[in-house]
Amino acid sequence: MKPFAQFLSYLFHPIFAPLYAVALLFSLPIYFNYRLSQEFVNFTFGVVTLNLVVSPILVSLYLKRKEIIGSLEMKTTKERILPYLVSSILYGVTFFLFRQVQMPALYLKFFLGAFLALVILLLGVGFSQKISAHLAALGGICGLLYSISIVTSTETLGWLLIAIVISGFVAAARLALKSHTSIELISGFLLGFGIQVILFS
């Protein structure tokens, strides 16, 4: 059970959430997608991969090498402060960059929501509250899918159900690994979901 729980934690690590979200956005039959060039799609994936996946991983590896964090799982709230701060800055820079290249406002809202969620997570660890980043990321994706369906009348129910099921499995995995309490997991999901729904409303 523990190896499978660890596998799920890595597969749906919050660091990969922006890639999953962008892949979902561009695969949905949203009217904006028919106006976007392949070059713009490739550019978006490139920026997300570099800014929001590769860079945070490199920063975390550096912090681990300097023994600022004990492991890449960052089990204590103190260990999460600097990585969350760096990720918040990177999300802010990415949002600003995408706004400069005139990404549709509908898509920009996801990155703004992710930035705000990270800021709240950062404030939380400042008060020794270890809200689940895994569930915040998955809640954000669920909130995105739900909001897209409401705002654009796009059918997202299938993907939304899959995302909810995955959220349940990841929550169970985090509990099995004793990484979070039930309250931390629920609050994380509600944080991610709520911010997206509020921004899209």
Can you describe what's shown?
- The protein is mostly helical.
- It has one domain.
- Helix content is 77%, strand content 0%.
- Helix 1 crosses helix 7 and helix 2 packs antiparallel against helix 3.
- The mean pLDDT is 94.
Rounded to the nearest angstrom, the distance between the terminal CA atoms is 40 Å
Count of distinct structural domains:
1
Structural class by sheet pairing and helices: mainly alpha
Biggest sheet: strands, sense, closure? none
Average predicted local confidence, pLDDT: 94
Task: Give the count of helical stretches.
Answer: 8
Would you report the number of β strands?
A: 0
Shape: globular
Radius of gyration: 16 Å
Helix content: over 70%
Low-confidence segments, ≥5 residues, pLDDT <50? none
Give the SSE string: HHHHHHHH
| Beta-strand residue percentage | under 5%
Provide tags for this entry.
single chain; 201 residues; 8 helices; 0% strand
Brief overview:
The chain is mainly alpha-helical.
Please outline the helices and strands.
Layout: H1 2-11, H2 17-27, H3 38-65, H4 77-100, H5 105-126, H6 133-152, H7 157-176, H8 182-200
